[in-house]
Design goal:
alpha/beta, 9-stranded mixed sheet, 7-stranded parallel sheet
């Protein structure tokens, strides 16, 4: 083993490494170094990229770490043994464990396969790659294992290279000694595939298909039945010992002179805080986001704060009183909700983590407080209340019928220097078909909520993502640009950059992928994914530069679309004109109808919905002249499908999406994503208690 530095933090960076290079840190990396590890400018860390070895780097930045300067190489790049770990996926937490251990054991490729008895049908490849990087960072590994897209088991057997050794872990193997089987078995000069089946075992036809494969070695793992994640570690240890780089390392050690004996530094832990500072992906620790304790306060295990919510300290009354010093505003708030016909909901604090990760993406993992139950299901402290209330509604006898709920309680989310436990209130309305009226009712109740805190005058900002979607559909754009522009709508910088990029003329030059781009011309995403999958299979790889097959297919399709002329200039002009519409809602309706008429686009249904909503808002006593509407307004959350709004304090100059007092909108697609067999209309809003109590006390 090389002389590893266990004291210095290690960080993966996706950038070329050479002496003197400057690397800009991503936001999460800056937060990790500055807020979690408490490192500052001038301190050193170790970095690697999976290609250029390991380097010592110096942190740069004034207020927080914002970049790294590469100083000197500490280790040359190595290569992983040609071992592919082929497995039937498990549930979240156990899959995380299995990926981490496979990386630590030195595999070069992770290939999920879907068998007859595989327990899950969806595999989060992005999450697997995050675990690969985390394990490499923590264990001094320099080369990253490729993460392949899941594929059916029979397809894997058809496409795998027949000259590779296939080690098939089988409790019915004739040779009971695994070491003997490996030592007397086939050679592994062309690489090894280690196959671990599902917990329910292989189906009879799958086992028969396996036994017909060339160069297959059946391996017993002893007299006991092992769980799939345990079996993976055992099989990898056996293969590495007999056929892998453990054997090569042992031979190298025997060939060394006596005075060349290798010594290994034990890992040093300077303090409890240091030992807890490095967290697994998404496993946020209380010690990383709590304020420093006061002098004289007894030191406690930082992790105990994670569980205080289950004790008497975290009663609702204590939480409410702690937030504002008085529960008077809570009485007024809940009374206004009850008078509107909304029943108070009390969803559980501990929730399945999967819905939050599926709907918000892996980025939210860094903000969640996670744990695992004995069955391996990943759980979290609820980061918001919308999804828990929606799940309870879907599990009730009222599912699919009109129903309204209110809530007030604590939620838990890592927020940098702010408290991770805070109060949230709000309303969710499900099943109402009168969408325009329900939208207007939400805005009216949200305005009533601000009066419970003594606020009389707020900025009302509204938008409608359904209008933008209708515009893009009417323009009949290439599928790749339709998907990309709708995705970018809530990310204003990206959308502006895309529009400016599309305005530029396409370069006439050729590139090395010209044939692929020509083959993809006019294709949809499904066809592009199939072509790229086949090409990657022929090349014998499933991951290039950290990009998955799907990501590579999207990139090729995008380039092919651009080469074909990108968007017509008249379409770009229409989109820009649309995004410039803002101001009085009634005037905006008129401008939208004029745009639709001039461009000969059918936007009538979406505009009619907006106009109807404005009418219901006026009927509820909302002065629409004081309401700002903007076609470019979005809340930065992908699950909104229509009306969106935010309420801000007067004089609050902070931008859209930053510290609203109340915010919400329509999310008709959420229920099917949570398992509803049919779409259910849904609209709601959340009240940010901290911001309202602060602004209300100053009013």
């Amino acid at each position: 083993m090389p002389d590893l530095d266990f004291r210095a933090p290690r960080l993966f960076v996706d950038a070329p490494l050479q002496q003197g290079a400057r690397i800009e840190l991503e936001r999460n990396q800056s937060n990790y170094l500055g807020n979690v590890l408490r490192l500052s400018a001038g301190e050193s860390i170790l970095v690697f990229n999976g290609r250029d070895g390991e380097w010592r780097a110096q942190i740069e930045g004034r207020k927080r770490p914002d970049s790294l300067t590469i100083v000197a190489r500490t280790r040359p790049q190595d290569r992983l043994p040609d071992i592919a770990y082929v497995f039937a996926p498990l549930k979240h937490a156990r899959l995380d464990y299995m990926v981490q251990k496979a990386v630590e054991m030195g595999v070069s490729r992770l290939q999920p396969v879907l068998t007859r008895h595989t327990q899950i049908s969806r595999v989060n490849v992005e999450r697997m790659r995050a675990n690969v990087i985390e394990a490499a960072e923590q264990c001094g590994i320099l080369s990253l294992a490729d993460v392949a897209e899941p594929m059916p088991f029979d397809r894997f057997l058809t496409q795998r290279q027949p000259e590779r050794l296939l080690v098939f872990c089988d409790e019915a193997a004739e040779t009971t000694s695994p070491l003997q089987a490996l030592q007397n078995g086939l050679t592994a000069a062309s690489g090894i595939d280690i196959l671990i089946g599902p917990e329910g075992g292989f189906a009879d036809e799958e086992r028969a298909l396996l036994l017909r494969q060339p160069r297959t070695l059946r391996l017993s793992l002893g007299p006991r039945i092992l769980r799939a994640d345990t079996a993976g570690v055992a099989a990898l240890a056996l293969v590495q010992t007999v056929l892998g780089d453990w054997l090569a390392r042992a031979r190298l050690a025997r060939a060394r002179p006596a005075n060349g004996r290798l010594t290994v530094k034990p890992p040093a832990i300077n303090s409890v805080g240091q030992s807890l500072s490095k967290r697994r992906p998404g496993h946020a620790k209380a010690c990383a986001n709590e304020a420093p304790r006061n002098p004289g306060e007894p030191q406690t295990n930082p992790g105990t704060r994670f569980f205080r919510i289950f004790g008497p300290e975290m009663t609702a009354t204590a939480a409410i009183t702690g937030a504002a010093g008085s529960a008077a505003w809570a009485d007024a708030l809940l009374l206004s909700f009850a008078q509107g016909g909304y029943v108070q909901a009390h969803p559980g604090i501990l929730q399945p983590a999967e819905p939050f990760l599926d709907l918000s993406g892996e980025d939210i993992r860094k903000s969640l407080y996670l744990t695992t139950d004995p069955s391996g299901e990943e759980l979290c402290l609820r980061p918001d209340l919308t999804i828990p209330v929606a799940r309870d509604y879907l599990a009730s006898a009222s599912a699919g019928k009109p129903a309204g709920f209110s809530y007030l309680g604590p939620v838990f989310r890592y927020r940098g220097g702010q408290p991770s436990e805070f109060l949230q209130a709000g309303i969710e309305s499900f099943g109402r078909q009168d969408r325009a009226a329900a939208d207007a009712e939400m805005l009216a109740l949200a305005l009533e909520a601000t009066t419970a805190f003594g606020l009389k005058d707020v900025d009302i900002r509204t938008g409608d993502v359904a209008l933008f979607t209708a515009l893009i559909d009417a323009l009949n754009l290439y599928p790749v640009w339709r998907r990309r522009l709708i995705k970018d709508f809530n990310r204003k910088v990206s959308l502006a950059e895309d529009i400016e990029r599309l305005t530029l003329a396409t370069a006439p030059g050729r590139n090395e992928y010209e044939g692929v781009l020509a083959a993809l011309a006019g294709s949809d995403r499904k066809a592009a994914l199939a072509l790229v999958t086949d090409l990657m299979s022929i090349a014998g790889t499933t991951n290039v530069g950290g990009r998955t097959v799907a990501e590579i297919a999207d990139r090729f399709l995008e380039q092919s679309t651009l080469k074909g002329g990108a968007l017509p200039r008249d379409a770009l002009a229409i989109i820009k004109r649309f995004l410039a519409i803002a101001g009085d809602p009634d005037e905006s309706v008129a401008q939208l109808r004029a745009l639709a008429a001039d461009a000969k686009l059918d936007l009538a249904a979406a505009i009619d919905q907006l106009e109807s909503r404005v009418g219901f808002m006026a009927a509820r006593g909302i002065d629409t002249k004081l309401t700002r509407f903007s076609t470019s307004f979005g809340r930065g959350l992908d699950y909104y499908t229509g009306f969106e709004f935010e309420l801000h304090g007067k004089g609050n100059t902070k931008g859209n999406g930053v510290e609203p007092l109340v915010a919400g909108g329509r999310y008709d697609g959420l229920m099917t994503q949570l398992g509803s067999p049919a779409p259910i209309p849904a609209v709601g809003f959340s009240v940010w208690i901290e911001a309202l109590t602060k602004l209300g006390s100053a009013a």
